Structure formats: structure tokens, C-alpha cells
Amino acid sequence: MNVDVVIPALDEEEALPGVLAEIPARVRRVVVADNGSRDRTAAVARAGGAEVVAEPRRGYGYACLAAMDHLRPDPPDVVVFLDGDGSDDPSELDALLAPIEAGAAMVIGSRTRGRAERGSLTWPQRVGNALACRWIEGVHGERFTDLGPFRAITWSALESLRMRDPNWGWTVEMQLAAAREGIRCAEVPVTYRNRRGGESKVSGSVRGSVSAGVKILYVLGRETLRRR
């Protein structure tokens, strides 16, 4: 099973070398989608053995979509998404892949079921995740406990979802679309750590938290209306 890792990154020069060093040897290739960084993110990614894709349009989804375009000529069997700030633990990748090896098509690394370091998840994140997961369960009957960024999905399933969200609605769009299409999903508990250096693009400011929350609600409403 060929496994590629996608890391959207914005100004992660400090954290990225440690993240790349923790990725297991079983991974075929790592693609860092540089989302308009002003530091040496691209240089340290290449030095760490990653392929770099430049996506100057700011947005988490834009970065992920650019990485998918890069992978498409020689796609993997499975894509793993994780953040470049050191909050996800790449050494847990085997646990994330185990349900796929058993037949699942998408696996979410649940921070709420796992061990989250103190301060790594803010209360607005916890509340927002819980509300979004309840919404998905109520509309589609698929039970999730988190919208965590550390996730694995088969390439065929990912392509079938026709992802399009350009920013913070990416994770919830993926889970909503998977539930709507009847894709077999699973969750595994994962560790969530405090980021290594710098400030979170979402939880590090009131504006970031509010913007992400509003976007998640927008995507929930949009996908629900599409179903109807």
C-alpha cells in the first residue's frame, strides 16, 4: 500500500524539521504545500526530503488542493493529511492506517478521544467540534467525535468527494461529503500536542477562531441544503 503524506504549511520554518523527522519510513513521499510562507518553510521542507508545492493563495483548502494536483499524475493508494506545526504526532501514522487496511476508506484521528496536551485545544474548538459532529450525525447518521486535521483517506475516496473548500471548511466538508456518499469511515484516538513555536493561525487569535467557526457553520449549512 503506497502512502503519501500532505502537509499544508504557512510559516512553519521552526516546527517543520521535527515533523518531517517523525514521519515513518513506510511513507512513499511527503508533499509540503507552502501556502505563501514568508520564512524558510520551503527550504527546510526540501532539506528534510519533502517535495514542495507553492500555493500563494492563502487558505488551508487551497494548500490541500494544490498538493492533490501534484499527486494526481502518480497517485498513492492512501493520502495522510497532517499539520506542519508539530501538534500532530506522525509516529501514530500506523494506528491511523490500521482501519484502512481492515477495509475503511477514511479515518479521522480524534483528539477528543485521545490525549490532548493542556492548552492544545481551546474551549471554542472543543465546542465547535462537538456541535459540528452532532450536526453530521443528525443529518447523515455518521458519528464523529472530532474534525481533527490528522486523517487518512484512500485516493479513490478522496477523488470521489470532489473537494472544493479553499480554507477552514476543508475538514468538515470532507467528513460531510463522506457521510453523504456512504463512504466507510472510522476514528482512532490520537495525541494532540501544543504547537512548536509561533502562533496558531486559528486558535491563536479571537479573529481566527471566529472566522473558522463561521466557515464551519457555513459549510454545514451549504452541504445540508445540497443534500435536500
Task: Record the SSE blueprint.
Blueprint: E1 3-9, H1 16-22, E2 29-34, H2 41-47, E3 51-54, H3 60-71, E4 78-81, H4 93-101, E5 106-116, H5 123-140, E6 151-154, H6 155-160, H7 170-181, E7 185-192, H8 206-227
Parallel strand pairs: 1-2, 1-4, 2-3, 5-7
Antiparallel strand pairs: 4-6, 5-6
Q: In words, what does this structure look like?
A:
With 228 residues, the protein is an alpha/beta fold. The chain has a single domain, classed as Alpha-Beta Complex (Spore Coat Polysaccharide Biosynthesis Protein SpsA, Chain A). It has a 7-stranded mixed sheet with strand order 3-2-1-4-6-5-7, sandwiched between helices. Helix 1 links the parallel strand 1 and strand 2. Helix 5 packs parallel to helix 8. The termini are far apart. About 3% of the residues have low confidence.
User: How many domains is the backbone divided into?
Assistant: 1
| Cα-atom radius of gyration | 16 Å
Q: In percent, how much strand structure appears in the residues?
A: 15-25%
Report the total helices: 8
CATH topology: Spore Coat Polysaccharide Biosynthesis Protein SpsA, Chain A
Pattern of helices and strands: EHEHEHEHEHEHHEH
What's the arrangement of strands in the largest beta sheet? Answer: 3-2-1-4-6-5-7
Largest beta-sheet details: 7 strands, mixed
Low-confidence parts: 202-207
**How confident is the prediction overall: mean pLDDT?**
90
Shape: globular
What do we call the CATH homologous superfamily? Answer: Spore Coat Polysaccharide Biosynthesis Protein SpsA, Chain A
Give the terminus-to-terminus CA distance.
37 Å
Structural class computed from helices and strand pairing = alpha/beta
Task: Indicate the CATH architecture.
Answer: Alpha-Beta Complex
Q: What's the number of extended β-strand segments?
A: 7
| CATH C-level label | Alpha Beta
Helix share bin: 40-55%
